[in-house]
Write a structure and sequence with these properties.
Radius of gyration of chain A: 24 Å
Distance between the termini of chain A: 76 Å
Strand content of chain A: 5-15%
Shape of chain B: elongated
Number of strands of chain B: 0
Oligomer: heterodimer
Largest sheet of chain B: none
Helix content of chain B: 25-40%
Number of domains of chain B: 1
Largest sheet of chain A: 3 strands, antiparallel
């Protein structure tokens, strides 16, 4: 029996128990292998259930458990660290024919995976609103903002922010069919998704490319609400550094 | 420098941010790391993810239930254009 054969049999219940497995008394240990095989599948399924609770709610617990088994057999863990296991779930769902009629599911999975990434990203020290006050508008336009490593942004043609809220908050309204941009901020220890207004995603995308505030504003269009977006970023402790322009000789 | 439209917009935005978030530093500093309050399943600690009691069931089963209809909230979403909450795509969009 080889190690790779053992692993393959672990993930595929159609394969026979590997040869050569014996218990303490020298007897074949097929049932013990089955228990172990079930533990592997059970624990990975649990990780996926914890990681994608909205997906589970959308599909139902029973269906999700079955889906998880299909996923984990084709995408076994690549590392011993389980906290981000399931990163390939969005791509898997996008190619999963039986759910092709629910085309927003991959983006819901992206949102949930991004929440996990945000949760496990490094801490940073954010600037406060009072730090902004030290800048003139002209300086601010020329400044670059470094954003927190916990920040994630998901742009979707589906209302995934609303879908997430409708399945996690009792008072949330029903989703309306539209494209939505979602910003995930971790103000303290728990990440939270926020639906972005018009142009805000373009603005933030430009900041992430290390463009100046002014250039980012230009890319955001005329309906963009700078005050609301800055307030969101500041409240979410998402701006870590303001790099002021270095003046050439006046 | 003359105040152009962009400068005015930024000045207004900065004022708006200040109005909402000018919190005394002492209030912001009064936070501490707290253990034992992590999101469910996110602490990755002993007896957390990767451990399971499902070994009490001895044999795994094939995950083929995905051919059945999901029973979650997909169907409960009432949305214009129908397709989002629908599980009956063939009625409207015949294959081929």
């Amino acid at each position: 029996m080889s190690q790779s054969g053992f692993v393959m049999a672990l993930l595929d219940p159609d394969l026979p128990v590997p040869d050569g497995l014996i218990d303490g008394a020298g007897r074949p240990a097929g049932r013990r292998f089955s228990v172990y095989r079930n533990n592997v599948v059970g624990s990975l399924t649990e990780v996926l259930e914890k990681g994608f609770p909205v997906l589970q709610k959308l599909l139902g617990a029973e269906y999700f458990a079955a889906l998880a088994k299909v996923f984990l057999r084709s995408h076994p863990p690549e590392t011993r660290v389980m906290m981000l296991y399931g990163a390939q779930m969005p791509a898997f769902l996008a190619g999963f024919e039986p759910l092709a009629h629910l085309p927003y599911l991959p983006d819901v999975a992206r949102l949930e995976q991004a929440l996990r990434e945000s949760y496990h990203s490094a801490d940073s020290i954010a600037v406060a609103a009072t730090d902004l006050a030290a800048l003139s508008p002209e300086d601010f336009i020329s400044a670059r903002l470094q954003l927190a490593p916990t920040l994630r942004m998901i742009r979707s043609q589906w209302p995934i922010s609303s879908i997430w809220a409708a399945n996690t908050k009792e008072t949330a309204p029903k989703p309306v069919m539209r494209a939505e941009d979602t910003l995930i901020l971790r103000a303290e220890f728990d990440p939270e998704p926020h639906e972005l207004g018009q142009g805000a995603a373009d603005f933030i995308a430009a900041l992430l490319r290390d463009e100046t505030v002014g250039t980012a504003m230009d890319s955001a269009g005329s309906d963009f609400d700078l005050g609301a977006t800055l307030s969101l970023l500041i409240a979410g402790n998402a701006v870590t550094t303001i790099t002021r322009p270095e003046y050439a000789q006046a | 420098m003359l105040m152009n439209n962009k400068t005015l917009a930024v000045a207004g935005a900065l004022a708006a941010v200040m109005a909402v978030h000018a919190v005394p530093a002492s209030a912001q500093d009064a936070k501490e790391k707290c253990y034992g309050v992590a999101l469910a399943g996110q602490n990755d600690c002993k007896a957390g993810e990767g451990t399971t009691c499902s070994g009490s069931s001895k044999v795994d089963y094939q995950g083929n239930a995905y051919k059945e209809v999901p029973t979650g909230t997909c169907l409960k979403m009432e949305l214009p254009e129908g397709r989002m909450g629908s599980l009956e795509p063939l009625d409207r969009d015949p294959a081929g």
